[in-house]
Amino acid sequence: MYYNLATVHEAISEAIPDREAIVFRDRRFTYADFTRRTRRFANLLIERGLGCHTERDALDDWRSGQDHLGIYLYNGNEFLEGMLGAYKARVAPFNVNYRYVDEELVYLLNNAKTRALLYHSSLADHVQHVRDQVPSLELLIQVNDEPAPLLEGAVEYEAALAGSSEEKPRCEWSPDDLYLLYTGGTTGMPKGVLWRQCDILIATLGARRTNGEVLQTIDQYVSRAQASDRRHLPAPPFMHGAGHWVALQAFNTGGTVVIQNEVRRFDAADILDLIEAERVSNLLLVGDAFGRPLADELARRERDLKSLRYIMTGGAIMTAKLKAELLGRLPQIRIIDTAGSSETGGQGSQVSTAATGAETGRFRLSPHNAVLSENLTRKLEPGHDGLGWWARAGNIPLGYLDDEAKTAETFPVVDGVRYSVPGDKVRLLEDSTLELHGRESATINSGGEKIFAEEVEHALKHHDAVFDAVVAGRPSERWGNEVVAIVRLKDGTRVTEEALLEECGRHIARYKLPKAFVFVDEILRSPAGKADYRWAREQVSQAQ
């Protein structure tokens, strides 16, 4: 059976009403509280005329038949209430990057044909600047994270909830209702990925057991939730897919979502203090960008972290060296590398423990995954020549919002099977493990050779003096393009370029070595820890 996120949430909430669903600062919401608040938000949207206007079976894959709610918030209970409440109104919520400048906001909100926007008062100036440039925008809902007057025509979030019904919304939820996720836009313009909720549930939101079995009945969701009460802390912003995926997985398995106190930046001390105070069992990080300051804070001050069992990491590389350091300080944990994307959901995982040792994520080809030839005409076998595209079949997105051409390009049919091919280049080895090379959009063509930025970054991070690194290409008369490394050193350290090259040379071929270095005090990453390659290209261009 296929299910809708709202259906699953209501059933689990009825079964465990008194269990904590969300802990945020001084707020504690049980599943019963959370249900009442999401229903109130749903009914607010319905009363304003938002919902589903065309059913899925009457639409092309790249079209939406539902109204769209932009969620322009930092982490907090309101973000998750907005998502679940929108699903209960048959409205498709989507993530809005709170770092966007006004021009980017205008593009995104118009691309999504946004009818309603849920935003923090600290971001209200941006909303005021762009609102008249978004003709579809009708409803503004302001969450007061800091004192600020309401924008003209806006409603205040808590007051709006108080004035709305907590009865179960009167609409027929469908497994075909949309889950809409916008890609980050760090390598191009953001694109809205359209999923059926029943597919994203199976792909990454908890409809599968750990053995891969798909839950078939609501009773199975409920019984699993009753038997488990893990506490999850997703450190990335909820506006990043991985952040709210972990939160929704937690709700769909009866868990508690603990939200950090400092929501505008990654604060390692805050994260570790919360793990200790709230007995968090599962922590989500984003590679070395989050893992490095966490390890440094662990070294600075010990805490009682015996509740912590799993550190999950994805979206960026966590090096084996850093994993070993974390395992040395927290020997009870399992570090789980996850691979996936907005267009595939989870694609693979790899576990490091104190007993097995640490290595940088190596993934095996799992069910529903394949490696496709460069020209997308056939499936490659283990031990193939050259590189191929990492692809996923089965429960995958419908396509990109209002983009027929890009939908056809990213979701091709090969030998009668429809795949999602988001752009990751890999080699499938003889033993069916995957050798990851990186995203095609972050590839540098130098002297006729393709060099993946991520593999050079990984090599640089082996040096003890390197705190962070990102790699980009810039034009070169000799090479066409040359590799340039942008490096942030650990505080109080110094290193020569020769020493960095020597360390890199131990891990990658000579032709991949950086031709130049740019040393900076800070590397710009998305709030989710992902490299911003547009920024990186600007830095290396200016350094010429």
Features:
544 residues; alpha/beta; Rossmann fold; five-stranded parallel β-sheet; 28 strands
Query: What integer value in Å does the Rg equal?
Result: 23 Å
Number of strands: 28
What's the architecture of the largest domain in CATH terms?
3-Layer(aba) Sandwich
Provide the β-strand percentage band.
Answer: 15-25%
Structural class: alpha/beta
Helix content: 25-40%
By CATH, the topology of the largest domain is Rossmann fold
Domain unit count: 4
Q: Please mark out the parts with pLDDT under 50 across 5 or more consecutive residues, or reply none.
A: none
The average pLDDT is: 92
Shape: globular
Give me the oligomer status.
single chain
Largest sheet: 8 strands, mixed
- Strand order, largest beta sheet: 2-1-11-10-12-13-14-15
How many helix segments?
16
Distance between the termini: 58 Å
What is the name of the CATH class of the largest domain?
Alpha Beta
